Amino acid sequence: MDRLGSFSNDPSDKPPCRGCSSYLMEPYIKCAECGPPPFFLCLQCFTRGFEYKKHQSDHTYEIMTSDFPVLDPSWTAQEEMALLEAVMDCGFGNWQDVANQMCTKTKEECEKHYMKHFINNPLFASTLLNLKHAEEAKTADTAIPFQSTDDPPRPTFDSLLSRDMAGYMPARADFIEEFDNYAEWDLRDIDFVEDDSDILHVEFELRREIKRLQEYRTAGITNFCSARTYDHLKKTREEERLKRTMLSEVLQYIQDSSACQQWLRRQADVDSGLSPSIPMTSNSGRRSAPPLNLTGLPGTEKLNEKEKELCQMVRLVPGAYLEYKSALLNECNKQGGLRLAQARALIKIDVNKTRKIYDFLIREGYITKA
Fold this sequence. Notes:
By secondary structure, the protein is mainly α. 48% of the residues lie in helices and 4% in strands. The protein contains 13 helices and six strands. The strands form two sheets. Strands 1-4-2-3 form a four-stranded mixed beta sheet. A two-stranded antiparallel sheet has the order 5-6. Helix 3 packs across helix 4 (107-119).
C-alpha cells in the first residue's frame, strides 16, 4: 500500500530505522499494527525479518513513499512538496531561484505548474475562499473594537490574539521582531570617534613608529644606517611606480578637466623632485572615487582655489561646503575655539569628511582649535 511520506526530503528530518538506527530513505516500511509511536524500518531490516518487542515480521505494513503523481503525471508528490517549500523559501515569482533549489525542474516548468495547479485551480480557489469565510466568521465575534482615543489592546505573549496579530504591539506601534532584524549589521563595526585627544595622537605616533621598525626587521635591517638607505630606495621605487601609473589615471579621468589639472600638478611635483600626494586606496584594495567635477555647480564661484581642491578631493558640492563652513565659523566665534568632536556634532556627515574640513579650516586660519 503506497502512502505519502509525512517528512521532508532531508533524511535527518525522518526518524531513524528501529532496526539499524540509520536515517530512512524512501521507500521505507511502517508497521500498520505497532504504535504509537510509529514503527519504521528500512528495506534492508524489513527483508531480514527484523523483530523487536511486540513487533513481529508477519505484521501488516505500509510502504511509505512519495514517488507517485498527485496533480500532474510528470510531477511526483515529492516534487510537489519540494516546489511548495521552494516557493516558501524563495518567494512567489522568483522562479529561477525556485528551480535552482528544486534541481529537477526548469524555471518555466515550475512557474507553469504552480500557476496551473495552485493559483488558477478552481478546486483550490473554492477551498481557500471557504477557509477565508470560516476564518472571518470565527473571528467576527472575537475581534476587539479599537478607537484611536482608546488605550490600545495589549494581548499576552503567545496568546491566540497575539499570534493573530503576528507579533504586533499596538501600544508601541512596533513588532516584537523587526522585518529585517539584521539590517543594521553593516554598521556594527564602524568606530565613531568622539574626540581626538593628545593621548590618541601620541598613541598613533607610537603605533606608526613600531610598524616602521617592524618593517625594518622584516627586511633584515639591523642598524639605522641601513634603514636610511632602505628608505631612500623605497622612496625611489615609489616615485617610479607613480610615474608608471599616473598616465593610466589621466586616461581614465580624461573627460574630467579638474582631474586632468590635478594630474598635471602631481606630474610637475614628481619632475621637480617633490613628493606628490599618493592616491588613497580603501582597505579592500580598490581605488578611491575620482575627484568631483565642480563645473557648473552652484557656489563654485565663491570658493578660492584651495577650497575648490578640497571640495574636489572630499567630493563635496560647494553649496554644502559653504553651509558647513559658516556653521563651524559661527560656533568657533561663540566658543572662542572649536574641537573636532564639536565639529562632528554640528556636521552630520561622514566623520572622515568632517575631519578633512576641520583640518583645512584650522590650517587656513578660518577657525582656531579649542
